[in-house]
Amino acid sequence: MKSRLLGGIAALVLAVIGTVLLVVYVQGADNRAAQGLEPVNVLIVKESVPAGTKAEELNKYVEVAPVPRSAVPDGALEGLADQTGRVTSVALEPGEQLLASRLVDPKELVPGTVPVPDGLEEVTLLLAPERILGGRLEAGDKVTVYTSFTSDEEMPANGRVPAEVQGWKQSTGLLFHDVLVTAVQKAAPDTKKAGAKDEDGAAQTGVEMPNGSAFVTLARTDAQAVKLVFGAEFGTIWLAKQTDTSTKSKTPVTTFGGLY
Question: What residues pair up with 65 in beta bridges, in sequence order?
Fold first, then answer.
């Protein structure tokens, strides 16, 4: 009886040892196989990425993962450190490797290539350079829209206008935050060389000055687009480029009386 018990225990121990050895062998085989494939860390898309997305915003859409070298195409990226200032030229889908060829200079985007979000429409404004950061706006940027109006008469106190505007002929207000720029069509800049002199004989500083106005296309709902059109028809519009840390305040309408 005792010998049978000891024999059973010994058999159980041997079975456990055999199982452990088998698992270790299989894991070792997997590791040896992976080593033979020479895995390389590349960026893999984990969430759908719209065309026109800035490289600085891609970290939340991609992750680093090992891929066999034989399955890594030319131009696959391992990081985004060298891609600052570039944008995705096409939409990216989960599972694909991020290629350098998918990131381009914003100036290479054809007008209208930044997709319009669902539910929005595009409206184009003709604006002078000083109203669009000296012409530095690009497709994919987000802007804040300001409008200014000057009336021939003072705003009536009983009119449907903000209280702070009543009694004033001029006013400027913040119309929208987070407005997507889908396209910018502008003239080539007029670069003045350092050391050159203008017509009056004054030395130039080498500053690059925009030449002419630009068509800026914005994505808005129909109810918001009509306000942009009204502002362009009967007043003036000014765009301010937003950053990821821009403050978005609910500022009151500004008049001369409230300026100081």
Answer: 42
Closest CA relative to residue 214, chosen from 241, 186, 239: 186
Q: What is the mean pLDDT of each run of 10 residues along the chain (260 residues)?
A: 59 64 64 66 88 85 88 88 85 88 78 76 92 87 92 64 65 91 74 49 50 86 95 94 88 76
Residue given tokens 């119309």 in the structure block: 175
Which CATH number, 3.20.20.70, 3.40.50.300, 3.90.1210.10, 3.90.1150.10, labels domain 39-106? 3.90.1210.10
| 183-to-5, 101, 152, 214 alpha-carbon distances in Å | 83, 21, 35, 10
Q: Residue type at 50?
A: P
Residue among 212, 224, 222 nearest 175 (CA): 224
Q: Are 89 and 104 contacting, i.e. CB atoms less than 8 angstroms apart?
A: yes
List the domain boundaries for the chain.
Answer: 39-106, 121-259
What three-state secondary structure class fits 219? Answer: strand
The single-letter code of the amino acid at 70 is S
**Token pair recorded at residue 257:** 């009386």
Burial readout 64-75 (b: 16 or more C-beta within 10 A, e: otherwise): eeebeeeebeee
Distances (CA, A) of 153 to 127, 166, 239: 26, 11, 27
Please give the Cα distance from 82 to 137 (Å, whole number). Answer: 21
Rounded CA separation 119/115 (Å): 12
